[in-house]
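go over this record:
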Amino acid sequence: MNNQELAALCRIEIRRWQAVPDKQYMVALMETALTALTAEPVKVPDELTMRDAIRLKLSVDWAAGYNTAIAHCKELSEPIDNTAQKYEALAKEGKC
């Protein structure tokens, strides 16, 4: 079945379930399905990096490739350590 046939079936089912008072949830279900079938498709980029996904608050599906995702994870998990110079200076002075 293609989307037009499924949409027609949803319309038939909506009319059928509207006649049954205690099955109004089926009307809502069919209306939701009809909306999904007739909605405009959403264009998704072919490739997203993990940084794009985080910025866009998307779930990351590794579309950009394993290495790109790992590199970005590493970048997030290893922030720049500006305390190393302080520790080196203290070590030279013999304070630590």
User: Anything to note?
Assistant: The chain has a mean pLDDT of 71. Residues 43-79 form one domain.
